[in-house]
Amino acid sequence: MLESLITSKTRLRLLVKFFVNDRNQSHLRGLADEFGESTNAIRKELNNLTQAGILLKHSDKNKISYHANTKHPFFTNIRDIIRKYLGLDMLLEQILERMGEVGQVVLVGDVSRGIDSGKIDVLITGDNLNQDYIQGLKKRIEKMIDRKVVFTLKNERHEGYGLVLFDNKIGV
């Protein structure tokens, strides 16, 4: 649905890359390799997004890296739209509904790095998690968001890399 509003596939991929997780940053050649596109097409979109103030660029020697401008007035709106586009809002809502004593819900894998590969890896931590519910939930969510979902359940808290969608310790 978002594809009908943002007709440039490159622009949409860049927005996903930088707004699903505001810690993501990259440079032109890395994006070209990741997207499998020419540097010219990506440079054009990076320039447009930078001129609009949506992305910021940072020079370090001869390398320019880009990242989301978290101070932009529309940052939160764009982030929320991108997360809805990926189905993360529905995913979180469904997990918290009847999953048990959820401690954390953390995106790991491609989506946490801003790569929309069609697969979402979700780590759920907590005590007494409802194993039966997660099996039915997986199929239901995959149908709702049109992406493959892989759930990993753990008892202990996750402290590694990932995008924390929910943490009962900090109220995220």
UniProtKB/TrEMBL annotation:
Which domain of life, per UniProt? Answer: Bacteria
Output the SUPFAM superfamilies linked to this UniProt entry.
Answer: Winged helix' DNA-binding domain
**Which InterPro entries does the entry link to?**
WH_DNA-bd_sf (IPR036390)
* Record protein name field: DeoR-like helix-turn-helix domain-containing protein
Q: Which organism is it from?
A: Algoriphagus ornithinivorans
The organism that produces this protein has a lineage beginning with: Bacteria, Pseudomonadati, Bacteroidota, Cytophagia, Cytophagales
